[in-house]
Specification:
transferase; phosphomevalonate kinase activity; 494 residues; Alpha-Beta Plaits; 4-stranded antiparallel β-sheet; 8-stranded mixed β-sheet; 2 domains; 14 strands; 41% helix; Ribosomal Protein S5, domain 2; alpha+beta
Length: 494
């Protein structure tokens, strides 16, 4: 039986919050080891004798974590179903209908599509379950949960109208899920040949990946009802990167799809469009660790915060432009310092390793003590430059939030981030993306991660098991549910 398993990572937007909405502003987005998985297999092993036409197919969507299963018939001539399935199938038909692969496409369609979707635990908050068990808010407690744990349900006083409680951690679950489904379907239908997870390094150039990207962006745009910056889908496809958004007009047909265009017409137009986004691989420098914490403050609405900032821009154009310019300069400086550190690691590894080992056990004001020669001084200077940059970024983000009347870095987050920055071995700390109450991040040096997670735990912050994984979308060898904890698969929290 043909089975395809694809996975796509969640993201953390390190720099570029709000700025990334407008070209040519860049953002640094890190992909993570929290991944969404899409498993595709046929529903029917044998083709029915009356299946001479393939304008219809059976589809079964299963989400074990949400205890949901849906079965329906999908009209391929004019489908109105979950967008990732709809546009992936439309793209397959557009590309393969006149090729030698069309027979395989027809067969797979006629056999139906059995689709199972799984998301790593880190996409969701399990704080309530851990506290209900009487466990401490530690990474060890979070790791004790089974992989792909069910999401708890809310209900009214009568126990009726249950619905999934989807308290998210801000890792871009919808983009990762959409990308995984699109990639799995395009691979299953013979349209692309994506790399295996074991062979996926930092490759960001591939026509097959580009196709997944275009289809996933289209599906995600229609599903959320607007054209976003697209950094979350791009990182789900290509991995950690420096990203500049595409011109929104490339998805103009997708914006009006619900009104007058079929999915076939939309995807044909999208594939012919001029995609002018920019992406360049950008992992963290070596010996640095990305750490995320969930403060437990209930999360924030990114669309409403973005709307408030845009309203402020319109009402205060000069003041907002000045703030954006300072924020852009601070973002660019942090990017340059991280680039410098990556180059220093490549050119003088032993010196770089020595300095990071030494600084990982010290507060930042003592890092200069290890700049005993020119080479070590260059590493320390770049480290301190990166710290200064994130401090400036936070300052300008707070100012923007104050002016726009939204809590981009709320006071509770400010106190927590200041304490984090004052912990030994911490290079960076901030609120990712649009900010608010969703999560906080830190970048630590070498072995200092435990100092941060212990400090967060003492303040009621749940340290997630998320780490940077620069890989983008890939094909997995097996169903992730049958792998052991020590297998190295990201979904089970290495």
């Amino acid at each position: 039986m043909a089975v395809v398993v694809a996975s796509a990572p969640g993201k953390v937007l390190l720099t570029g919050g709000y700025l990334i909405l407008e070209r040519p502003n860049a953002g640094i987005v890190l992909s993570t080891n929290a991944r969404f998985y899409a498993i595709i297999k046929p529903i029917h092993q044998d083709l029915k004798s009356d299946s001479l036409l393939w304008s219809w197919t059976d589809v079964k969507l299963t989400s074990p974590q949400l205890s949901r299963q849906t079965e329906y018939k999908m009209d391929l001539a004019n489908p109105f179903v979950e967008q990732a399935v709809q546009y992936a199938v439309a793209a397959a038909h557009t590309i393969l209908v006149k090729s030698s692969q069309k027979d395989l496409l027809h067969k797979r369609i006629l056999q139906g599509l059995d689709i199972t979707i799984l998301g790593s635990n880190d996409f969701y908050s399990y704080r309530n379950q851990i506290e209900a068990r009487g466990l401490p808010l530690t990474p060890e407690a979070l790791a004790s949960l089974p992989p792909f744990s069910p999401i708890t349900f809310n209900s009214d006083a009568n126990g009726a109208n249950c619905k999934p409680e989807v308290a998210k951690t801000g890792l871009g679950s919808s983009a990762a899920m959409t990308t995984a489904v699109v990639a799995a379907l395009l691979q299953y239908l013979g349209v692309v040949k994506l790399p295996l997870s074991s062979n996926t390094l930092l490759r960001v150039e591939s026509e097959d990946l580009d196709l997944v990207h275009m289809v996933a962006q289209s599906a995600h745009c229609i599903a959320q009802g607007k054209v976003g910056s697209g950094f979350d889908v791009s990182s789900a496809v290509y991995g950690s990167q420096r990203y500049v958004r595409f011109s929104p007009g490339v998805l103009s047909s997708a914006q009006v799809a619900a009104n007058c265009l079929s999915s076939q017409e939309v995807i044909t137009d999208v594939l012919k469009g001029k995609w002018d986004h920019e992406k360049a691989k950008f992992p963290l420098p070596p010996l640095m660790t990305l750490v995320l914490g969930e403060p437990g403050n209930g999360g924030s609405s990114t669309p409403s915060m973005v709307g408030a900032v845009k309203k402020w821009q319109a009402s205060e154009p000069q003041k907002s432009q000045e703030t954006w310019k300072r924020l852009l300069d601070a973002n660019s400086l942090l990017e340059r310092q991280l680039n410098a550190l990556s180059m220093l690691a490549e050119e003088q590894w032993e010196t770089y390793k020595y300095v990071l080992n030494s600084c990982s056990n010290l507060h930042s004001e003592k890092w200069k003590e290890h700049a005993s020669d020119g080479r070590k001084e260059a590493v320390v200077k770049a480290l301190l430059g990166a710290r200064d940059s994130i401090i400036n970024i936070r300052c300008h983000m707070r100012k923007m939030g104050d002016e726009a009347g939204v809590p981009i870095e709320p006071e509770s987050q400010t106190k927590l981030l200041d304490a984090t920055m004052n912990t030994e071995g911490v290079l960076l700390a901030g609120v990712p993306g649009a900010g608010g109450f969703d999560a906080i991040f830190a970048v630590t040096l070498r072995e200092s991660t435990n100092k941060v997670t212990n400090m967060w735990s003492s303040r009621g912050v749940m340290s997630l098991l998320v780490r940077e994984d620069p890989r983008g979308v890939s094909i997995e060898n097996k169903d992730p549910r049958i792998r052991g904890i020590s297998s190295g698969i990201s979904a089970v929290h290495i």
